[in-house]
What we know:
The complex is a heterodimer of chains A (69) and B (457). Chain A has 69 residues and is mainly α. The mean pLDDT of chain A is 82. The radius of gyration of chain A is 20 Å and the shape is flat. Chain A contains 2 helices and no strands. Chain B is an alpha/beta fold and 457 residues long. Chain B has 15 helices and 15 strands. In chain B, strands 1-3-2-6-8-7-14-15-11-9-10 form an 11-stranded mixed β-sheet, with helices on both faces. A two-stranded antiparallel sheet of chain B has the order 4-5. In chain B, strands 12-13 form a two-stranded antiparallel ribbon. In chain B, helix 7 runs antiparallel to helix 15 and helix 10 packs across helix 11. Chain B is globular and about 60 Å long. At the A-B interface, helix 2 of A face helix 10, helix 11 and helix 12 of B.
Amino acid sequence: xxxxxxxxxxxxxxxxxxxxxxxxxxxxxxxxxxxxxxxxxxxxxxxxxxxxxxxxxxxxxxxxxxxxx
Amino acid sequence: xxxxxxxxxxxxxxxxxxxxxxxxxxxxxxxxxxxxxxxxxxxxxxxxxxxxxxxxxxxxxxxxxxxxxxxxxxxxxxxxxxxxxxxxxxxxxxxxxxxxxxxxxxxxxxxxxxxxxxxxxxxxxxxxxxxxxxxxxxxxxxxxxxxxxxxxxxxxxxxxxxxxxxxxxxxxxxxxxxxxxxxxxxxxxxxxxxxxxxxxxxxxxxxxxxxxxxxxxxxxxxxxxxxxxxxxxxxxxxxxxxxxxxxxxxxxxxxxxxxxxxxxxxxxxxxxxxxxxxxxxxxxxxxxxxxxxxxxxxxxxxxxxxxxxxxxxxxxxxxxxxxxxxxxxxxxxxxxxxxxxxxxxxxxxxxxxxxxxxxxxxxxxxxxxxxxxxxxxxxxxxxxxxxxxxxxxxxxxxxxxxxxxxxxxxxxxxxxxxxxxxxxxxxxxxxxxxxxxxxxxxxxxxxxxxxxxxxxx
Lengths: 69, 457
């Protein structure tokens, strides 16, 4: 399926909220590469037995006196 | 004493003298306003001054005359960062965009300060959306050609230049401690969750902490007590009170500017003499810390503000804010959860370390304030030290304590050859604010760096 550049840009705007025209890609791509390399360095760790520091607590809303921050 | 000199006194000196009626709340307020009128056009610490603040000062004087005193903050002028909601001033997150509006009500901590008798004097400049370490408009009071730091830059300038008695900031990766270090004042980040965040515009839910910027450690303790009802320091420590001081060579001492390293080493020598040996600790997972905090912060910020992108308003955002929001869209959910797993490992590292030591010491920022407009830095001439972005370098020593949720404080510990301040950072285990403040105050009183004030023209 061929998508016209303008339609692709509109799609990216709608899906990601991002304007991915050529100029914007040239700004973001190098920084994104640098960031993702840093973020994905953690993949070398075996984290299978590690619980995340922030765990979601969906039932907290039912408890009285819960901090509303 | 000249009226203007009142503004330069710390809260711990002002409070008893106000109670004795040596001067009035209104005289103190007027002395601060005189300094703002004289110096803020060049320092640009403030976004907004509260129009009703002088009336509040007069009301607080009447309370004093009637025999009432709300405590050590009665009549003390305090500024707040532009991401704290206030009933009497708009909140703009440090940007001038008519695209996001916030309620006109007081944040919980602002409300507590008012009840404690503080005068909320104005809103300070901040790096837009609390993302960034410069605060472009505010200038460093020690050198107007240098940045104030960020993101609570205006609060640091206002506190350091005595344009208020103290200020509130927020700290997500170092945003209180970095500008405090660069401007030569005290910056306190309490344990995550100790101080309410209600009414503070969120940057990153699990990293944000409300903190203070002040001229002394004692003032930081007074503010923390007003915000939490605890953590008061009961006078100076006895000479025999000793704490176990730790330091972590890896990460905290392997990439600092030489002058910063040398000055901090002198401070550590003092601590070793005062408290006994300084103990070496290890934090083996901290080498993954940068990736962890980047994933958490970018995802959180995107989640919190993506509406701006969906509404097609990105062209109206400051460039760095737009970059942050857009880059956050590309960090996967799996990467975010891995980051939270690594964060757990880093917390466990700190937990082990705090079985050996009471306080961890380090520099606060690897370098002194840099010239406005500088975007990259080479920390030292060593071959292994590449040029890196200012952001990457500036928060390296502060973000670990946000990831781990630990209390940390920066205090002045000297100056470089250009007379720019250098900060010394202490951190402690969760809710050990009293230990942290006691060790920091002991150092402060032995050295007197807090008495140094910038020469403003």
